Amino acid sequence: MFESSEVIDPTVHCEDCLACCCSKEVLLLGDARVPSHFVVVDAWGAEVMERLDDGWCIALDRQRLRCSIYSMRPQLCRDVAMGGAECLAARSEH
Questions:
Q1: Which stretch of DSSP H or E encloses residue 92?
Q2: If I label 79, which of 8, 19, 42, 66 is the partner at 20 to 30 A Cα–Cα?
Q3: pLDDT tens, 3-34?
């Protein structure tokens, strides 16, 4: 079994975050579990998560600041651990 050695900050929560990770382009690499109505093809022909006119991910529930398709979220989203290195780096930019 694979075990991550990444250090996670347990005090970090998405609910109080302004890092905007939900406004990044998310490339879908064989993510068949993502519902098709959330997927668009970008200018280069790649499948990506659709973003709304203001740049936010279409799957973001803005009232709760949570992913509305969490159990089906793309692999790139799964790879960013809340409180992990990538998360903390994004937070430090804002």
A1: helix 85-92
A2: 42
A3: 566 777 778 777 777 666 788 889 998 888 99
In this structure, what token pair is assigned to residue 47?
């499948």
CB count, 10 Å around CB of 86? 14
Query: Can you spell out the DSSP letters for 2-48?
Result: --------TT--GGG--S-GGGS--B-SS-TTS-GGGEEE-TTS-EE
CA gap 25, 42 in Å, rounded: 10
Residue with tokens 């280069």: 44
- pLDDT (0 to 100) of residue 13: 76
Positive or negative CA dihedral for 84, 13, 27, 54?
negative
Query: What are the pLDDT digits (tens) for 27-39?
Result: 998 888 999 999 9
